[in-house]
Amino acid sequence: MSAQQDFPKQKIRDEQRKAEKQAQRQKLIDAQTEKLKKQKEEQEKLLNKNIIEAEIKAEEVEKMKKEQRRKLQSAISYSHKVKMEVKQQQEEEEKRLNQEFQQYWINRNKELQEQELREKMEIKKKNQELKDFHHQQENERNQKRTQEIMKNFDERDKCLARLDNQDKEFDEWAAQIVKRYQAEGKNTDILMKELKQFKHK
Asked: How far apart are CA 46 and CA 188, in angstroms?
């Protein structure tokens, strides 16, 4: 076999080795590419998982925030409602107290007016009683004076009557003396003069 005949074979073998090396290199490149592709897919998968988890977490956080806002709004509404109810109760209580106070003073003024009227009536009654008492005392004094005057009149009349009786008795006695003197024949002029003077004393 000559050198010229061996050259093509050598070339073919070189080409084959080159082709094999190229194939091995391509195989390594493909394997590396596949590995990188799988790593990229894993990274993307992990990234997507993280994104999904982050989104879920964000949704949960947003949900929690909404729930907190709802609770806060509910608490604010409840607090406002309680304040309004308390304010309404205070206004109603104040209104009730004002009405009770007004009614109390209406009743109190009525009681005071009635008491004042009773006091006036009592004063009027006492004044009338005092007036009646004074009138009664005056009547009693007048009656007593009248009785005293009548008694004095009666005593005077009785005294006059006694005096009249005494005068009559004296006149009868004097007439008897005069008759006796006349019967005895005595002078009765002096006796008559003395009797007349005695009677006029």
From this structure: 192
pLDDT band at residue 1 under the 50/70/90 scheme? very low
- Name the CA dihedral angle for 110, 115, 117, 122, rounded to a multiple of 10 degrees: 170
The tokens describing 194, both together, are: 């003395």
d(C-alpha 72, C-alpha 80), whole Å = 12
- pLDDT, residue 6, reads 61
CB 191 within 8 A of CB 178: yes
Helices (H), the chain: 3-183, 189-199
Cβ neighbours of 47 (radius 10 Å): 11
Within 8 A by CB and 6+ apart from 170, the residues are 199
Residue with tokens 């009743």: 107
Distance of CA 194 to the CA centre of its chain: 108
What letters, b where the CB count within 10 A reaches 16 and e where it falls short, cover 66-92? eeeeeeeeeeeeeeeeeeeeeeeeeee
CA distance 177 to 200: 18
Q: Do the beta carbons of residue 182 and residue 188 sit within 8 Å? A: yes
Residues 39 and 14: their CA atoms lie apart, in Å, by 36
Asked if pLDDT for residue 2 goes beyond 60, the answer is: no
Q: Which two tokens stand for residue 107?
A: 């009743």
Tokens linked to 50: 């993280």
Closest CA to 153 of 145, 142, 138: 145
CB 191, CB 173: distance < 8 Å: no
Cα–Cα distance between 184 and 78 in angstroms, integer?
Answer: 152
